[in-house]
Structures are given as structure tokens and as C-alpha cells.
């Protein structure tokens, strides 16, 4: 079949993207799903900072490629060997397809799946296949096994989480990345307990989700740190007790002042190792720093080796919220339905697929939090 898609041919084009057009909107050919694969009609797809990092070269991936990894849709066709997912099912995508049998899947850490990581790097589906071709017959790669910026996509069944039909399907896309990553970092990676102090550096979709997670966890105080006043305001609406403008005050000193010596947990959701060092400095003795944002491969982090040892501090990475998507996405949806995870507040005005380049300009400038492409809107 033919499908409308936004294809990345060349990374590191200049901004504004509305002029340089790194994503070309075109018709591509999509094969039927093979064994263990599923054809999905997209309903919602979020613009995430990781997509932007691939556009700007921070996280290079092979091209041509269809980006997009935070998505939801309706199953239209299933391949052989797909038993748990049926036509018309509603699904959310997981951007790491857990193979189920590698050493990490075996110990319950599918976010670290070896086979999923390998095929995600290669830009293929979990079985190594590529199902898109452009008009020249050239294979078009799948971003993180999802390739969300297309009207239709084919994905491995391991990339899909079935959800109930009474959940607004377009917004449900956010459970696949922003919410899973941000709330997961608080609940799974850090395991924040009631009354523990939390600081969150960087208030994009993931950082603001971490604020919501900290609120649910009963953290106190919750301190939000950013350079954009409107985001600090939003963080307060989502449950932050204090907001620190890192351009106006020294955020390390400000966090330490508010907490008599630092927080138990500091989260970095920017992907900047200088900010990560600030987060580390804002933790108290015995505190933990959780790195969520993905920095450029060349960036090294510089922290006090003495404080690390003498103050028994910990620095740890959190990838995809250390999540088990099949366990966590239904739990997060329950919290949303109970009114305890107000993800609607993250949503900036939505877009059509044709306006995707402008959308990435807004994300790069920080003037949008979570923009959702609504297909057929
Ligand atoms: Zn993402
Ligand atoms: Zn695995």
C-alpha cells in the first residue's frame, strides 16, 4: 500500500526547519506486515526531543528514515504468529521492542533489551526487516521500531501495547514516551518515597511528567528548575512546590537553600552534562542524581569525585523510565483515568503531519511542550 509520511533524508540542516525542510512529506510504499508484525493506522504521534536530536545530529541514525516514536493507533492488519493483538485493537507504541529472551528481558529490564537496542540503532524492525520504500525503491528506515510520522506503519508485535478503547486514543500516544520516561524515572529508577525532596532540571514533556510522578509519589518539596518562565509556571500547576529560574539564580544554591542542604533526588531531563553536574550539586549527602536526557555522544560529565565518595552520592541513568511497558502503561493509564496524571496540561496546539517541520522549530525554541500530530483531524 501507499502511505503519506515525513521522511528524513539529511540530518543537521539549519534552523528554521520550516525553511530548510529536513522532513520531506511524500508518499512511500509500505509492505504488508510479515510474521510477528502488525499494520497500524496512526491516530496520534508526539514530537519528542529525541526526534529533534536525530534531526540535529545529536543522536545520529541511518537515513532515509521515518522519525517518530511516541504514538498511538488502530490495528488494521496482523501478520502470522500475532495472537494477542487483533484488527481494530487500540495500541500505544513502545520505542524499545523487548525481545523477551535476551539477558535483560530475562531479568525484567526490557528497556535495556539487547536485540531491541541493536535493531533500533540499525533503524529496522526487531527481526531486521524494513517495510517502507520511497518512490526510487530505496528502503526507508524505521525510527526506534515505530516510524510514527506516517499515516500507516508496520511494527513488530513487541513494539505494541494494547489499551482499552475508552481512553482518548490520540493523547494516549504520550504514555509511550513522555509519561513513561518521566514518571518511570521517579517511580522505577529512583523509587521516590513520600516526604523525600526532589528537584527536576529541565521542564519539557519528560521533565514535566517527572513533576507529575513526584507529586503522585508524595515527594516534598518538589522543585522545578528551567530557563523558561512559562514552563516553570506549568510545573507549579502540575504540583511543583517551588520553581527556580536557572538564568536568574544559581540553581544549586537555590535548591540547597530550600532544602537545608539539598534534595534526596535530582533529575536531569535536558540532555546536557553541565546541567547534570548542577543536578548532582543540588543533591544532599547520600543523594541520588538521575540522568534522563540523552546528551551528544561527545559530552563528558564533570563532577566532584570527592563528593561522590565522601558524601556517598549516586549518579544513575534512567532509560525509558526503567519501565516494563506492559506493566507500567496500564498503571499510568489508570492514574490518568483517576485524574491523578493530568497529561492534557502538557499538550501544546496539535499539528497536521504536513506542518511537522514548523513543529520541530517550536520544540527547538522551547515555545511548545508536547505537540501531537493528530492524523485525520
Ligand atoms: Zn521520546
Ligand atoms: Zn530482549
Short description:
This protein is of the alpha/beta class and 377 residues long.
Question: Could you characterize the architecture of this molecule?
Answer:
This protein is α/β, with parallel strands linked by helices. The chain has two domains: 2-176 and 347-374, Quinone Oxidoreductase, Chain A, domain 1 (Alpha-Beta Complex), CATH 3.90.180; 182-319, NAD(P)-binding Rossmann-like Domain (Rossmann fold, 3-Layer(aba) Sandwich), CATH 3.40.50. 29% of the residues lie in helices and 24% in strands. It has 13 helices and 17 strands. The longest helix has 13 residues, at 178-190. Residues 98-99, 102, 104-105, 113-116 line the site of one zinc ion.
Overview features:
six-stranded parallel sheet; binds zinc ion; six-stranded antiparallel sheet; alpha/beta
What does the average pLDDT come to? 97
User: What is the fold named in CATH at topology level of the largest domain?
Assistant: Quinone Oxidoreductase, Chain A, domain 1
Count helical runs.
13
Q: How many structurally independent domains?
A: 2
The CATH superfamily of the largest domain is identified as Medium-chain alcohol dehydrogenases, catalytic domain
Low-pLDDT sequence parts: none
Bound compounds, each kind once, are: zinc ion
| Measured distance between first and last alpha carbons | 21 Å
> How big a fraction of the residues is strand?
15-25%
Architecture per CATH nomenclature, i.e. the level-2 architecture of the largest domain: Alpha-Beta Complex
How large is the radius of gyration?
A: 20 Å
The helix/strand series, from N terminus to C terminus, equals: EHEEHEEEHHEEEEHHEHEHEHEHEHEHHE
What is the SS-derived class? alpha/beta
Number of strands: 17
Largest sheet: 6 strands, antiparallel
| CATH class call of the largest domain | Alpha Beta
- Principal-axes geometry comes out as globular
Indicate the percent of residues in helices: 25-40%
